[in-house]
Amino acid sequence: MLRKCEGFILTDLFLSLSALVIIGALLMPYLIRVYEQKQSVQRDHEAVKLLYEQLMESEAIMTAPRSDSFLKNGEEYKLLIDQGQVCVRYENGSRGVKQVCERFERTRFYDD
């Protein structure tokens, strides 16, 4: 005789899929925020790295750093010299313009 089959039916499948879609929709803003923070940290790291490289290069060749503009990973970083400080200014996504500065002391060996 026929046995009773206790398998999934179509409504069970739709219920499971709708639960997954709801969970995904609830997690999506969190994932977007994490991705934006990751991008921001990468830009910050790149700016500090660029600032460090420019200061070390100017120290090695004994000249003052020069204002310049750099393009890395599709982002523009501007190196600015202002009153004994060397700054890297860059666009930080939706958070506007951000600036990382370090004090630079000239010694008698540097050209003016």
What does this structure look like?
- This protein has one helix at residues 10-60, and strands spanning 68-72, 75-82, 85-91, 97-103.
- By secondary structure, it is α+β, with helices and mostly antiparallel strands.
- A hairpin with a 5-residue loop joins strand 3 (85-91) and strand 4 (97-103).
- The longest helix is centred in the N-terminal third of the chain and has 51 residues, at 10-60.
Strand line-up of the largest beta sheet = 1-2-3-4
Number of helices: 1
Instruction: Categorize the overall geometry.
Output: rod-shaped
Sheet with the most strands, sense and barrel status: 4 strands, antiparallel
What is the CA-CA span between the terminal residues?
101 Å
Q: How many beta-strand segments?
A: 4
Structural class: alpha+beta
What order do the SSEs take from the amino end to the carboxyl end, as H and E?
HEEEE
Supply Rg.
27 Å
* Average predicted local confidence, pLDDT: 81
Keywords:
alpha+beta, single chain
Task: Offer a concise description of the structure.
With 112 residues, the protein is of the alpha+beta class. 46% of the residues lie in helices and 24% in strands. The chain has one helix spanning 10-60, and strands spanning 68-72, 75-82, 85-91, 97-103.
